[in-house]
Amino acid sequence: ATSGVSTGSVSGRLPPYDALYYLGVREYFAEDWEKAAELIEKSIETRETILLRRRECQDNCVAAGHDRLEKLDTEKGSVWDLWAIDWVQRRAECIRFCLGQTISPVAQLPVSADIHYEFDTRNPYNFLQVTYYKLGKIPNAVAAAQTFFVANPSHLEMRNNIEKYRRMPGVTEEAFQDREKDGHKQWYLYDAALLAESSAEWARAAEVWKKCVNETLRQTEECRAQCELEGQGIPDEETAKTTGVFEKAAALSLNLLSCKQSCVAIVATRPGRISPVEDFLPTVLEHLHIAQFKAGDLRGAVQTLRSLLLFYPSDSDSLSNLQLYFETLGGDAEAPGTQPTQEISTYVNRSLLEKKLLYFGVENLNFTFTDPDLWTPEEVVPESIREAWRVEREKLNEKMKEGEKEVELDDSGFYAGGTVPLIGVTITMDDNMLNGTNRVVLDGALSQPECDTILQLATTAASLGDGYRGRRSPHTPHEKFEGLTVLRALKLAQDGLVNQSDARLLHEIGERVRTLLHSYFRSPSALYFSFTHLVCRSAITGKQEGRLDLSHPVHVDNCLLEPETRQCWREPPAFTHRDLSAVLYLNDDFEGGDLFFTDRDAKTVTATVKPKCGRVVGFSSGPVNPHGVTAVTAGRRCALALWFTKEKLHRDMEREEAEAAWTKDGLSVTKEEEKGAPAPPRSGRNQNSRERSKARGRVVGARDEL
Ligand SMILES: O=C(O)CCC(=O)C(=O)O
Ligand SMILES: [Fe+2]
């Protein structure tokens, strides 16, 4: 059926996008870049149009066959079911006809799970990145790289490619476009609203939260609409033999409802993340409510609170807030304008009806259903399964509470208090003085001349204008950020731009820190370098007074800290394989720039460390050690940041490349033609999603990079 596929279908109707994709990939491997780009782009575009048409056809056919429904009640006897089936068939016919007008018959067939996986993980953009690079279309390559990276934040080659694009002359910030942005606008709004909230711009926050609610509802509708036409797994042969048409119809409709319910979790999952944010919509409404209240929009706040109460009708905080509003507004809180919004009440009612049917299926038809919501009230769960449901719910709550509990003990396997095996290095602060677990400050790891040499190296690399020139800091607009890796230093040395011995010193001091930490934290296994870079943060001139931001916001190095819930998610985009962190400081001639540790709330500061030449701060990279850096308000603060892993698999291949070059003593490691070879796309088919994301995060040779 696919042999006739061309970039435009003969009939003028849309061809199957999976076939276009396969053809494009074939051209990619045949290195016909023009054709590869054309076909892959066409496949992306066709898929989008097909999804859109489906949505339109559904909307157009909502009323099809409705006249049949009236007959259900009027007809006597047993013919009601024929009218019901007639209604279903009319609607199906309407949709089929509608789709057939613009989509070719082959393109209407369901696509394979592999294709779903490819497009869900945005792999087409991985191919496109290389393809456009080969074609010399750099802006297109940059957009493809960015689009892929958003959904694969732990893909190291793409991260490096992006870094390299950033350094290319003529590439501007605007080129880093996420082409799939529209598909998850709710997250852009979510982040923007949080930002407005953090600077207490309440009116703006309320406005953006409201947009976020609407976008969440819109995305949910989009997702649900696709369920209907995605072909809900037809009951298997076995079931088909043993059951009749009504059982089959029931199984199909339960599958459909279950698919629609699962949209809650899909919409609540950030691109590139595995777990959804629990109770996403109620959480957004909660934020909206607070923002409206703070902005003085009491009517809006009451309306949102009432919407929120639809999810949690007996929530005592919400009820007492409502009472308060009622008193403040002089009884006006009952006015019609302050009822829950129509959209939310439709959403909740529909969801409740669906859940009722689904739990009915669980009770009577052996159906399995994973409820994506925490707010589901007990009443919709049938008595006979309520006990089991409660136990499950309890388990989930326990798990969440456990995450909330402060982990006093670090399960990293490290145990502070070992020896310090280098002469001249002393312990300045231990766990006790730093009020925490597995933290240490050591002094004397570098001499002043060594600090000066590395500082000079940073200055030279920065002044070369080779890409390490100051960029805006990724953390704050008030600072510049320069970074240098060992491999980069080696390359500069090979090009005669810096001293070989200085590049080697940069490498050597990392080894020193590894020796110190391995011993002090009594590491049970070998420690591998996971990533190392020399980072300088400099205050930009002017605009420094009254800064409230941080040079590096509070974070945990190997998981995503959620201060509100005190949980830390060990999943991408966090660098989950980092086990031990260290920062080796080089200077103190700047203002601000203190490192501080906090509680899991990201607010309560438990210890502060002032940088100075030769000072090392070491700590386990997990949730016991949230930390941040205060604003650098004058001068330049340089430090060597190092992360270690216990897993060999995750070791830093760039560092090994530099080491190999030194071993060969002066031989050029990267051949000219290899330099240009971008990371080839990799696919992780037939693995579950956790394994997949692990595979994506795996480090492979730097040869695969641009
Ligand atoms: O520079 C510092 O003191 C800490 C930097 C840091 O926490 C990080 O890069 O993860
Ligand atoms: Fe950090």
Q: Could you say which small molecules are bound to this protein?
A: 2-oxoglutaric acid, fe (ii) ion
DSSP helix fraction: 40-55%
Look at the structure and give the mean pLDDT. Answer: 84
Largest sheet: 9 strands, antiparallel
Helices, by number, come to: 23
Strand content: 5-15%
What distance lies between the first and last C-alpha atoms, to the nearest angstrom? Answer: 38 Å
Low-confidence stretches: 1-7, 667-706
Radius of gyration: 29 Å
Count all strands and give the number.
15
Structural class of the helices, strands and pairings? alpha+beta
What is the overall silhouette?
globular
Protein name: procollagen-proline 3-dioxygenase
Family: Belongs to the leprecan family.
InterPro entries: Leprecan_dom, Oxoglu/Fe-dep_dioxygenase_dom, P3H, Pro_4_hyd_alph, Pro_4_hyd_alph_FE2OG_OXY, TPR-like_helical_dom_sf
Region (Disordered): 655-706
How does this structure look, described?
It is a single chain. The chain is of the alpha+beta class. It is 49% helix and 12% strand. It contains 23 helices and 15 strands. Strands 1, 2, 3, 4, 5, 9, 10, 13 and 15 form a nine-stranded antiparallel β-sheet that branches. Helix 18 (448-463) crosses helix 20 (500-520) and helix 19 packs antiparallel against helix 20. Mean pLDDT is 84; it is low at 1-7 and 667-706. Bound molecules: 2-oxoglutaric acid and fe (ii) ion. 2-oxoglutaric acid (AKG) binds at residues 552, 557, 583, 595, 627, 629, 639, 641.
Task: Summarize the SSE layout with pairings.
Blueprint: H1 17-29, H2 33-60, H3 66-74, H4 80-102, H5 113-120, H6 123-135, H7 138-151, H8 156-167, H9 185-198, H10 202-229, H11 237-242, H12 245-267, H13 280-294, H14 298-311, H15 316-328, H16 342-364, H17 383-404, E1 426-429, E2 439-443, H18 448-463, E3 471-472, E4 479-484, H19 486-494, H20 500-520, E5 528-539, E6 550-555, E7 560-562, E8 567-569, E9 580-585, E10 590-592, E11 595-598, E12 605-609, E13 616-620, E14 627-630, E15 632-645, H21 653-663, H22 672-675, H23 689-697
Antiparallel strand pairs: 1-2, 2-13, 3-4, 4-5, 5-15, 6-14, 7-8, 9-13, 9-15, 10-15, 11-12, 11-14
Helix pairs in contact: 1-2, 2-4, 2-6, 2-10, 3-4, 6-7, 7-8, 9-10, 10-12, 10-13, 12-16, 13-14, 14-15, 18-20, 19-20
The structure holds 2-oxoglutaric acid and fe (ii) ion.
The site of fe (ii) ion has 4 residues, from loops.
